[in-house]
Write a structure and sequence with these properties.
It is built from eleven helices and eight strands. It has 264 residues and is an alpha/beta fold. 49% of the residues are buried.
Length: 264
């Protein structure tokens, strides 16, 4: 199987073909996702919660991400690999350059993801100019949970929706090659996806975006307090790999997320 590239994802957006993604943190799950036909794998700082047992993502280090990237790459060497830059690892452009290079060099990642809007424009531009593709992340920003006062839907009022759309435009203009939207109203996410030329991947952002990403443990029903935008694909599937295949199919058919799994 030929490894998908960012150009593959761009073509899928242009053709209206939904992109399916999921997090993974080890070789075994990554291999099952690759066999299931996942478009890209995200080694997310969500590992702080689902692997390390923390109550937030803030304690995750660049070393943690690099280690789990190596594990995932070993299991899924032909799948596009995106790595989170964790909390305070990109506070300056110099930090971002060094840490992103480490994730590509040591972790075999092909893209890094950063949370934030306009303040990141110079950093995104610097990374892109040096050959490091960037995925932006807007909406609910888990690394800013204390500032936000909890895990809450973002962009529900007119002013915050307009600000989010403008920041999405700024990130694209700075060189971002993909964007994740987390926990935003479906109509706003659809507008962002329609106005940007880069793939827009949703998590809790409705079905009218270019693709979906879920935390692996949520997709397998392992979260005792499942967010409304998640679905247990394991129950009734007959096995983990079958659950992954069901998820990929549901994303590509746009039957996931359903209206009740989105926000208005």
């Amino acid at each position: 199987m030929k490894r998908p590239t960012l150009e593959t994802l761009r073509r899928k957006k242009a053709a209206g073909e939904p992109i399916a993604s999921m997090t993974a943190y080890d070789a075994s799950f990554a291999a099952a996702l690759e066999r299931a036909g996942i478009d890209f794998i995200l080694v997310g700082d969500s590992l702080g919660m689902v692997i390390q047992g923390r109550d937030s993502t803030l304690g995750v280090t660049v070393g943690d991400i690099a280690y789990h990237c190596r594990c995932v790459h070993a299991g899924a060497p032909r799948t596009l690999l995106v790595a989170d830059l964790p909390f305070m690892s990109y506070a300056t452009t110099a930090q971002a350059l060094g840490n992103a290079a480490r994730l590509l060099r040591e972790g075999n990642a092909q893209m890094v993801k950063m949370e934030g809007g306009a303040w990141l424009a110079d950093t995104v531009r610097a990374l892109d100019e040096r050959g490091i593709p960037v995925c932006g992340h807007l909406g609910l920003l888990p690394q800013s949970v204390h500032k936000l006062g909890g895990y809450r839907v973002q962009g529900r009022d007119e002013a915050s929706a307009a600000a989010l759309l403008e920041e999405a435009r700024i990130l694209e203009q700075a060189g971002a090659r993909m964007l994740v939207l987390e926990c935003v109203p479906a109509a706003l996410a659809a507008r962002v996806s329609g106005e940007l030329s880069i793939p827009v991947i949703g998590i809790g952002a409705g079905a009218r975006v270019d693709g979906q990403v879920l935390v692996l443990h949520d997709a397998l029903g392992m979260n005792p307090s499942m967010p409304r935008f998640c679905r247990d694909f394991l129950t009734g599937a007959g096995g983990i790999e079958a659950a992954f295949r069901a998820y990929v199919a549901a994303v590509r058919e746009r039957s996931f997320p359903a209206p009740g799994e989105s926000f208005e």
